[in-house]
Amino acid sequence: MRWWIFLFLILLFSVGQPAQAHGYIVRAIPENRAVLERPPTRLQYWFSEALEPEFSSLNLRDQNGEIIATGGVSETNNTLMTLRVPNDLPDGAYVVELRPAFASDGHVVAESRVFFVGEEIGGVAAAAATDQALPLEVAWKVVVYTASLLLFGTFTLYALVLVPAWGSTKYPAGLLPSRVMNRLNLIVGVALTAALLGNGFALIQQTMVFFNISFEQALQPNFWSLVRIGSRFGDIWNARMLFLGIIGVMFLASLYFKNTQPEMVRPFWVASAWMAALVIGSFSVLSHAAGSLVLPWVGVTVDWIHALAVGVWIGGLGGLVLVLPVALQPYEGDQRRQALLAVLRRFSHLAVVCLGIVITSGLYSASNWFYSTAEIRTNFGLSLGIKVAMVAVLIGVGAVHHAALHPERYARFQAIIPHLNHTLRLETLIALGVLIAVSVLSATPVPIPEFAQNDVETPTQVQTVDGLTVVLTLLPGGPGVNTYDTTVTRDGVRVDGLNVLLMQAHPATDRRSLPHLAEPVENGLYVAAGDDIDRPGRWWSIMDVTTPDGEAHRVAFDWEIDAQAAVVESIPPNIWHYTTLLLLSIVMVWAAYPTVRRWIHKMNLDALSVSIAISAVIATSVALIIGYMIIQNTRAQYEETLNPTPEVVNAVLPTQASLDRGEQLFLTACDWDTNSRDFITLRDRLPRTRDDELFYAVRDGWRSLPACAPDLSFYQRWDIVNYLRTWADYEGIQ
Amino acid sequence: MVVLAHGSLGYWDELIFLGVVVVFVMLMVVSWIRSRTTQPQLPQDNQAEMSNEPDHFQLD
Question: Would the CB atoms of A235 and B56 count as touching at under 8 Å?
Answer without folding.
Answer: no
